[in-house]
Amino acid sequence: MLAYPQIDPVAFSLGPLQVHWYGLMYLIGIGGAWWLASLRLHRFDPGWSRDKLSDLVFWVALGVIVGGRLGYVLFYDLAAYINDPSLILQVWRGGMSFHGGLIGVLLCTWIFARRNGKGFFELMDFIAPFVPIGLGAGRIGNFINAELWGKATDVPWAMVFPTDPAQLPRHPSQLYQFALEGVALFLILWIYSRKPRPTMAVSGLFGICYGVFRFIVEFVRVPDAQLGYLAFGWLTMGQLLCLPMILGGAGMMYWAYRRDARLA
Fold first, then answer.
1. Where would you find this protein in the cell (predicted)?
2. What confidence tens digit (pLDDT) does each residue in 229-249 have?
3. 40 annotated ligand-binding residue
4. Which of 106, 133, 162, 192 pairs as cysteine with 32 (C-beta 3.0–4.6 A)?
């Protein structure tokens, strides 16, 4: 068994203001994605300036934060937030939904695309390879917060999390998600998108890979206590939300290559 590193969730304080690692991970994720996007900017559109990229990053970040928070409220714990709406603003306590953030990004990207004369999937294919930077950073934030841990296990790398009332050795599922949703997904998309691909193909591959990775890890991750398992004694909300991503991603890739072959 490995010892859980006791990390103060508060990175530093400025007087009464406490800066949490969880919030810093979002800044790191957005900043890292911004930097990588700047490296591919001229290949995406030689006419785009860095100011235009900055505008895109702002819209995407807005979608991530607002969509992620509202998605968690709607998908995972609506009753608690109805009872105390002030909890919605307490983002430093965790409670962000990837799928809600994805919906927010899709909506904001659609608006940005319309305003800037770009195709929606043209922009999404550009954005998709940078998303795993934010996903990976967010999972490190979950690990520091000692939240979203896995099921009890006897594997040699199990950890006892300080937030676990039972104090059992558990799968560090946050690190599994960091490795898959962050590192592996980034490498797959970055390498795949280095060459020109049919429009929609990169976005489709993102949907397939993220959906599969998340679906797998959910088998060893403890579901949210207020929801538990939704069906068959094992299906979680995360898995349920990933199914349309996998199917939709596969359909997008099929259509992208079929249309490309017809145009060739």
1. Cell membrane
2. 887 888 999 999 999 999 999
3. no
4. 133
